[in-house]
Design a protein that fits this description.
Strand content: 35-45%
Radius of gyration: 37 Å
Shape: elongated
CATH class of the largest domain: Mainly Beta
CATH topology of the largest domain: Jelly Rolls
Number of helices: 0
CATH architecture of the largest domain: Sandwich
Largest sheet: 5 strands, antiparallel
Number of domains: 5
């Protein structure tokens, strides 16, 4: 009501009805969508649409009268932002979720510091095929001054755009843009975060998810390539992916993404195009393509694109190198394909140049636990904000759990201007130790046996033995290698990158300890490769020795030089090479076998199939060999 309303009650003391006015209230109206928190009108009104009662002499209500309303207003609830004058989303990180597994991924968000201040609304957008999952975001803050002060971020081309639509080409959404850098900007880069999705259309069924393609970015007339491809999906440390009994396509190469991994931005340095008062013209060009159709329900090709221009108004350091990652030795999950490493193997680290001057030299010091440090001087040419991996000289350590520390010093033979990013420490454990003198290698091929191979390497990375010929599909092959005490790497490969199972047959790679048959490692769904590092420490009389002699020849086929691996630890033997007619074409006497191995060459032997006969104190061993 627009005038005072009253409520009534019976006063039993005075035996009469009293009335009293109801309290007024305000109704506020918000009709300005550009200023949603500012009222556009105010009404002072009184409550109504209730009952006033009639009472008898005892104060009992005997009747009622509905108080009507003069007008009715309906409340409409809208969502609005109470902080930002302009609502604009900025994508600061993108990842692709794995198949049925959890993953932890870390991003450096220093470039976005200008938009991560004061009050910020953060949103995680998730799309895909699943029943749902938790997304947790944690921020860690690094004390100190960053190498570059990111002062401004400007969105460029952003959205999800169909690729190959003749009626709406993707170039309609990727028009040239003109940027006006701030007068204080000293460096600038263009960042493209692009992933391809969709496949099954005509004429190219790989577009766009499985499309190995190079698009371009044009900056002030200069063209830069964007090779939109991830060829390392099969090397993902998160493997295999999927619930037990469930197979997935995690290992397939894709357009700038892998399941369970980062989406790596493509950054282009535009600093050389900056000049006072001038603009930047940028243009994103994709390879022309038109989809002509596809089977019912095919996933039409599209690109998810987020892009930004990032400006910097200050370069903090001239000489500043940082250590970004310890690749090995480490117990970190990301390093599980390479670790644990053998004693005497080479540590690997990643360094970065955070200084304005090109990094041409830096001293790396590293040590185990609290032991004495080894030093290594790296030389090269690393531009500002670029990184590279370094293989350090081998380092020794005993069995058990340890820590590994590496630190940098003297970038460009000068004092490092920011020392808090110079040192990293990881924990690690050494390889498993096996008391045996031989390992059996089982490999069951899938339906593409020509893709499979394996190697055995020593701690220095030298290939001791290798097998590449597996002629049969779905066939199990067993090889035995005899090894002296030391540390070794056993690696199974698949050249296509889909392992030995499961879409293309059900094979596996397996290592067995000696004649006991104990499984050391086994896997089938391993993508590009599976690596197992182990240490042999054979003590005679403790482990069982093979009952019969063994002989493995590598390589086979050979170009005339071979390595023999046999169950004989140390002995002089005689060797004959016999052709298919039974004629002896080569004789080598008193060949010394040391640590189960020796090397032979046949420079004058013609190509063909032969039998190699090894005569030792305990008898003869004969194996077929092909010389090419």
């Amino acid at each position: 009501m627009f005038d005072t309303t009253y409520s009534y009650q019976y006063d039993t003391t005075l035996n009469q009805i009293d009335s009293f006015p109801n309290s007024p209230f305000e109704v506020l109206f918000y009709n300005d969508t550009l200023n949603p928190t500012s009222a556009t009108d105010t009404l002072v009104v009184w409550p109504t649409y209730y009952n006033n009662y009639t009472f008898d002499t005892n104060g009992v209500a005997t009747d009622s009268l509905l108080v009507p309303f003069d007008s009715i207003a309906y409340q409409q609830v809208d969502s609005f932002y109470t902080v930002f004058e302009v609502k604009e989303p900025f994508e600061i990180a993108r990842a692709i979720t794995p198949y049925g597994m959890a993953v932890n991924l870390w991003y450096d968000l220093t470039d976005y510091q200008s938009i991560l201040r004061d009050s910020v609304t953060l949103q995680s957008n998730v799309c895909g095929y699943s029943n749902g999952w938790f997304v947790t975001t944690d921020f860690y803050f690094i004390e100190g001054t960053p190498p570059l002060h990111a002062s401004k971020v400007t969105n460029l081309w952003n959205g999800t755009f169909a690729y190959g639509n003749a009626n709406n080409p993707i170039e309609n959404h990727l028009q040239p843009l003109t940027l006006t850098p701030d007068s204080t900007t000293v460096r600038e880069k263009i960042r493209l975060i692009t992933t391809g999705h969709g496949f099954g259309g005509f004429p190219n069924q790989e577009v766009a998810e499985f499309y190995d393609v190079t698009h371009t970015i044009d900056i002030n007339g200069s063209t830069f390539n964007q090779h939109l491809w991830r060829s390392d999906c099969g090397s993902n440390p998160l493997y295999p992916q999927g619930a037990p009994g469930y197979t997935s396509t995690w290992f397939y190469k894709r357009a700038n993404w892998c399941p369970g991994s980062y989406v790596t931005p493509h950054d282009y340095d535009a600093s050389s195009f900056l000049s006072l008062g001038s603009n930047l013209t940028v243009d994103y060009n994709m390879v022309p393509y038109t989809v002509t159709g596809g089977p019912s329900g095919f996933y039409a090709p599209e690109y998810y694109i987020q892009s930004q221009a990032i400006e910097y108004d200050n370069v903090a350091y001239i000489n500043n190198a940082s250590i970004e990652r310890i690749i090995s030795p480490t117990s970190d999950y990301d390093g599980r394909r390479r670790n644990p490493i053998c004693e005497g193997m080479s540590p690997m680290i990643t360094i970065k140049n955070n200084g304005a001057d090109t990094l041409r030299t830096v001293t790396v010091s590293y040590y185990i636990d609290n032991g004495g440090a080894q030093t290594y001087v790296w030389n090269g040419a690393l531009a500002m904000m670029d990184s590279t991996s370094i293989e350090l000289p081998p380092i020794g350590f005993s069995a058990g759990a340890h820590s590994f520390t590496a630190y940098l010093d003297q970038p460009n033979n000068a004092a490092d201007e920011y020392t808090f990013d110079d040192t990293l420490t990881t924990s690690f454990v050494t390889t498993n130790v096996y008391n045996t003198n031989f390992i059996r290698i089982f490999l069951k091929t899938d339906n593409s046996p020509n893709e499979a191979s394996w190697t055995v390497k020593d701690e220095s990375g030298n290939v001791l033995y290798q097998r590449t010929n597996f002629p049969g599909a779905g066939v199990t092959y067993m090889d035995t290698v005899y090894l002296a005490n030391g540390c070794y790497s056993f690696t199974a490969y698949d050249s296509y990158g889909d392992g030995l199972c499961c879409y293309n047959g059900n094979g596996f790679f397996r290592l067995l300890k000696g004649s006991t048959g104990t499984i050391i490692a086994t896997a089938g769904d391993y993508g590009d490769f599976m690596n197992v590092n182990l240490t042999i420490d054979y003590q005679v009389g403790i482990d069982e020795i093979s009952e019969s002699q063994e002989l493995f020849i590598y390589p086979n086929p050979s170009h005339g030089e071979i390595r023999l691996n046999t169950s004989i630890l140390s002995e002089e033997v005689n060797i004959d090479l016999i052709d298919m007619t039974g004629r002896v074409v080569y004789i080598a006497n008193r060949i010394a076998i040391e640590d189960y191995t020796c090397t032979l060459s046949f420079p004058e032997v013609n190509s063909g199939i032969y039998f190699l006969r090894l005569h030792s104190k305990t008898g003869d061993l004969i194996r077929k060999i092909v010389i090419e």
